[in-house]
Design a protein that fits this description.
Length: 352
Amino acid sequence: MAQKSDYLRIPVEHIDISRIPVAKLVEAMAHMAYSARDLARAAEIFDRMLADRQCGVILCIAGSLVSAGLKKLFTDMIRWNMVDIVVATGANLVDQDFFEALGFRHYQADPWLKTGIKDDELRELHIDRIYDTLIDEDELRICDDTVRQIADQLEPRPYSSREFLIALGAYLESRGLTAEDSLVFQAYRQGVPVFCPAFSDCSAGFGLVAHQAARGDGPKVTIDSAKDFLELTQLKIHLGETGLVMLGGGVPKNFAQDIVVAADVLGHQVPMHKYAVQITVADVRDGGLSGSTLHEASSWGKVDTGFEQMVFAEATLAFPLLVGYAYERGIWRDRPVRRLNDVLAERVPVGE
């Protein structure tokens, strides 16, 4: 029988678009057709977002993209001040980003594994598979237990996911695990709010389950999803003009779009998201959020249709080109630094 080391040999390497010139390629795509032209227009819209000094940029990350090699790209966007708010799945933020910040890695499956996958053998070896990427289940359990330890040390009360993720960043700093390419750590350092509206829907949820089970009926840490929604709505009210960059769809996409309506419910007339780009491979025909068009979102009063673009492409192919184009253009260099975690710390009023 194979050993764990036979599988966990080739680490996933995170792409560094600062070293790969792509702007001329993307500009050339504008004169092509199909998804190439869509991507070129999406890149131009993202560049407009960055040039609009009044616009707050919200990055939405669904799927399993940190494990696929996009971690450094997300982190660089925070480091370069291209992003003001992040909304992502728990898998990307904790099971993958925080997991790697603790010193662990994701691994490429050997090419033969993709055509002759032995999932039973992987299970016996405590290896989990994400398509053609592998992760050590024993190391993942360490990550889960670290989440439990962090929860045990916090004041027992309801937390927004943003507040809990700040605690994860503080934990990394306190342990000297200053992982420069960690999204969670860089967001903590730069004051960028990170929301995970379905926090328990990831492996790290096991850490919170263990924490709450040990506390029984006593005081405990909880994740308050309504507080998440309120905090992100507060930021929309504070910013006014906003733009969305969405990878995949699902909960992060809908959560970020809905804050326009939530602000209205609270008595604040805020503009729809002025800019919106979505990269997805989902079908539009089943009514699911991942494939629903941005024009559809406009019917709900969420997204304006002046500067919006759907790109039907796989994110690991399209997103580095989109961000690489903006990086080379350099317009991001003069954006105002917002540190919106500090804004929320001041408890912005949201009533009439």
